[in-house]
Amino acid sequence: MSGALSPQLPLPFLVIAAAIAVLVALRFDLRYAVGMAFTAGLSASWVVLSLARPGGWLVFGVGILFFGPMLLGWLLRQTGSLNLAFQVALLSMAVLLIGLFAVLPDPVGIWREQLELAWTSMAKAGLQIEGDREVIIAAWARTMWGGLAALSLGTVFGAVLLGRWWQSLLDTPGSFGVEYRQLRLGRAMGIATTVLFIVALLTDSALVASLAWVAFAALAFQGLAAAHRSKAVGRLDRGWLVAIYVLLIVLPVTSFVVLMLAIWGFADNWLRPRTRSA
């Protein structure tokens, strides 16, 4: 089933396909989950190969999007800690980014040609962007790895959440909500994130800026968890929670909603008592 869903390629289908592998990892043996992730990855690879030239990036991307959630699902089964899986997902994405910047000779420049082609295509289609072309492309190229890593984190951990929710519906209804409402970066990662944001504001480092994007995405997850907790204790009406989810898929305001959730998550990480119950 997961392999059948993957050829559709839009993000929701990728999340669902990976979540099936997570569900298998949580309820059955890891070997079956590997087979499920491999099937989904092959299906997605076949579609990508039909549209673009093959390369090492294909294997890398498939590994992250399909085997990443599966391994996090296995970790969740072994430890029973959704929060640990969340922290490991964030740290893993940060390590991957650092590795990419260490290995690639020009991690920012690698995007310039692609962005110039995209700019030309938009111009031919009648889409005009105000401002200096070189400055805008340089700014976009500097943030591309960070944006891609943040999106990957959202896809990977989103699949973990969906798979864990499915498993709770089958085995222990209600347990997922309790776990998710306690999602938290923690003190150590909170300090690291705060320092990272300060350094990103004070320097022009593309690596630091990219890492900040990943931290930003993680804080948005915690902000959403805080919203669920507020609803559970009666401080937030169900309608507002529904509105948050609806606005998250309305492209003109998605970025603003994610920003608000990240700010909420940042505040929640520091202001919420560690011993507070769900």
Automatic annotation (TrEMBL):
The chain crosses the membrane at residues 6-26, 33-51, 57-76, 83-104, 144-163, 184-202, 208-227, 239-267. This is DUF2232 domain-containing protein. It comes from Steroidobacter flavus. It comes from the Bacteria. Keywords: Membrane, Transmembrane, Transmembrane helix. The lineage of its organism: Bacteria, Pseudomonadati, Pseudomonadota, Gammaproteobacteria, Steroidobacterales.
